[in-house]
Design a protein that fits this description.
By secondary structure, the protein is mainly beta. Helix content is 6%, strand content 48%. It folds into two domains: 130 residues, Acid Proteases (Cathepsin D, subunit A, domain 1, Beta Barrel); 96 residues, Acid Proteases (Cathepsin D, subunit A, domain 1, Beta Barrel).
């Protein structure tokens, strides 16, 4: 199977022969480290890596592209005796009271960031899969790389940097792609912290009034969210002739980064490899 590509904000869907590579003679002389980082795959979709904050090594972090900001658990902040200030964050359908703290440095394999503000929270309030982890690495850290590659078969995550080696803060708060659903473009946030494709029911019904589904709808629960599973043809990230399992959820789709129509969990693509190209805002997978 070739690599499939989606351009964030656009509607192009392309098939190419392999993951793109932009190697050149300049790459041989760059000083940025580029070794891959191993990860644990939890529940067959959650990417969990080891890293370091300040002097605390061996910490475990969920890699979550659905989170604009990185988070550390309160127990870690307590150990580091970090000064905190109050704040709030939007999570799916609600605002959560949180705290913020300035972190001396964060190290994830080749990625080393000095001086970053992170959210301090009880992780169980934010993620349903936060047992035995110490934090969440969000886009404020991940998008400092030009590209992030996730190899689900080899359990390796890799980073490609510009000449500044990820030292420059990024303005990217969300990785949103446009997915045609039965011919209608829908804006989905790429969320490695989710297993499924989730769509806001009211927004989908409004955009696609003659929505086609196959078989029986089934009610269920995803974490703390009530959801309805339907088999939906015409979702163009999946083979066009097959009906894809999609979960419909309640909510307005309004977030801190604008209105979206839902979330795309890359695990639903059954991808062996995934690449988030932050420089070009393109999602590739195979």
């Amino acid at each position: 199977m070739g690599v499939r590509t989606l351009l964030a904000g656009g509607v192009r869907l392309l098939l190419v022969a392999a993951l793109t590579s932009h190697g050149s003679a300049q790459d041989l002389h760059r000083s940025c480290p580029d070794f891959p980082l191993s990860f644990d795959l939890v529940s067959n979709f959650e990417v969990v890596v080891q890293g370091k904050i300040g002097e605390l090594d061996g910490l475990r972090f969920i890699v979550d592209t659905g989170s604009s900001y990185s988070v550390i658990d309160r127990k870690v902040a307590d150990r580091m005796q970090l000064h905190r200030r109050p704040g709030k964050v939007f999570n799916f359908d609600r605002h959560l009271a949180i705290e913020r703290a300035d972190i001396p440095d964060v190290v994830l394999g080749p990625l080393h960031i000095a001086g970053i503000s992170m959210i301090v929270a009880r992780l169980a309030d934010i993620s349903d899969f936060a047992d035995s982890v110490d934090g969440i690495i969000g886009l404020d850290v991940l998008s400092r790389a030009q590209k992030v590659g996730i190899d689900y078969e080899q359990r390796r995550i890799s980073f490609e940097f510009d000449e500044e080696c990820g030292s420059k803060p990024s303005a990217i708060k969300a990785f949103v792609i446009t997915v045609p659903i039965q011919g209608i473009p829908m804006r989905l946030l790429v969320d490695t912290g989710s297993r499924y494709m989730l769509l806001y029911k009211d927004r989908l019904s409004s955009a696609v009034p003659h929505l086609r589904t196959e078989g029986e709808a089934r009610d269920g629960v995803i974490g703390r969210l009530q959801a309805t599973r339907v088999n939906m043809p015409g979702v163009e990230v999946f083979p066009q002739k097959s009906a894809a399992p999609v979960f419909l959820i309640e909510g307005s789709g309004k977030t801190d980064i604008g209105t979206i129509d839902g979330y795309l969990g890359p695990a639903s693509l059954h991808a062996k490899q995934l690449e988030l190209d932050f420089a070009a805002m393109i999602l590739r997978w195979q």
